[in-house]
Amino acid sequence: MNLPQQARPSRHQLLHSRRDFFKTVMGRALAGASILEIAQYQAAWAQALAPTADPTLFEIRKAAEGVYQAFAKPNAILNSNGVIYVNSKEVIIVDSHSRPSSAASLVAQIKKEITDKPVRYLVDTHFHWDHAHGNATYGHLGAKIVASKTTQRLMAETSANRVKGTLEPGGKIALGMASVPTLIEAAKGNLAKASSPADADALKIRLQQLDAYAAEMKNFSPTLPGVTFDKSYKIKDKDFDLILQFNGRAHTAGDTQVYCPSRGTIATGDVAAPFMGDGYPRDWAKTLDTIMKLKFDIILPGHGPIQTDRMQMMGVRNYVEELTARVSAGKQAGQSVADLQKTITMASLKSMANGGDFLAIFGGRTTPTQTQTGINNNILHMYDRLDLK
Ligand SMILES: [Zn+2]
């Protein structure tokens, strides 16, 4: 779409206004940042706002009065969704995505599209890289970072090493993360044989995104939650209360949901995301049952669009329960992971009778082959995690 000629700013104006925008939005946020951190933010911002790239990383969608989903747009490095609560005096954000510049980009977008109220809380639903690695931005903003005690511990124990492994050529690839050098090599290979200028442009943007992530995360160390809780934590306000709850182990040992009873919404992080590398298969269905008993009409998941029914949550619940029973029985009978991956097919699972759409949450619809790969990965992870204490 072309802008009318008079509305199109010159390149000089664009660069200038971008610089002002950066200073205005991040001035306070960067008060305590090092020169290196500021340079990283600026580089990431310049890239995010470059004329060829999509200027925003999220699409903000209203879910209820004062409740919004920050729907993550596709990126070479996955970002989780965020959830934004705006009460009478402040902003509460759920999850900080895969890097500080993603969080900074969302904060800027909130100021532009929703409110000038200060961001006072960031909640980490769990410790995973695509949800909690932008915490530093909220630290600089002076927001309280809140998580379950278990999530804080898992973040301290694993986050830095996992990022390191994914950035080093030949490094130990962390669960659920891709090797960035491998992705860069693949994109360069595809660029060399790109069949159209449009394909080449898309691959160049992908390479920029991968390089920017690697540069920003090179010296990553996690910004840990400063406020923790065992079972629940309440954020009170005259508009609405938010209840942060640990309802049992599922996707990780510390999954937190952010429940807003008066708005009928619940932010669920990845509690219904079928990645099992850090999961607790035998607890999972029970945890989802506990959550589904709460009164809400709107689910704000960590990936994918807003849900207005419990279909997907129930689908994952039934799938995890059935797969756990199958893997457990097979393991007891002496079958290996490879044996089980051959016999537990999509067609053999009752819970997949609807086509298993819930396995597609990480991007579009999956093909049957991709779905079976998802099942195989789940079997592999589950096999070792069945009887964890
Ligand atoms: Zn996760």
How do the helices and strands line up, and which of them pair or pack?
Elements: H1 11-26, H2 35-48, E1 58-64, E2 67-72, E3 82-86, E4 91-94, H3 100-113, E5 119-123, H4 129-132, H5 135-141, E6 144-148, H6 149-167, H7 180-192, H8 197-217, E7 227-229, E8 232-235, E9 242-245, E10 257-260, E11 265-269, H9 281-292, E12 298-301, H10 311-332, H11 337-343, H12 368-385
Parallel strand pairs: 4-5, 5-6, 6-7, 11-12
Antiparallel strand pairs: 1-2, 2-3, 3-4, 8-9, 9-10, 10-11
Helix pairs in contact: 2-3, 2-8, 3-5, 7-8, 9-10, 10-12, 11-12
Bound molecules: zinc ion.
Zinc ion binds at residues 126, 128, 131, 251, 270, 273, 275.
Keywords:
389 residues, alpha/beta, Metallo-beta-lactamase, Chain A, 3 domains, seven-stranded mixed beta sheet, 14% strand, globular, binds zinc ion
Any overview of this molecule?
The protein has 389 residues and is an alpha/beta fold. The protein folds into three domains: 237 residues, Metallo-beta-lactamase, Chain A (4-Layer Sandwich), CATH 3.60.15.10; 52 residues, no CATH class; 67 residues, no CATH class. It is 43% helix and 14% strand. Strands 1-2-3-4-5-6-7 form a seven-stranded mixed β-sheet. A five-stranded mixed β-sheet has the order 8-9-10-11-12, with no helix packed on it. A hairpin with a 2-residue loop joins strand 1 and strand 2. Helix 2 runs antiparallel to helix 8 and helix 7 packs antiparallel against helix 8. The radius of gyration is 21 Å and the shape is globular. The N and C termini lie far apart (57 Å). The N terminus is likely disordered.
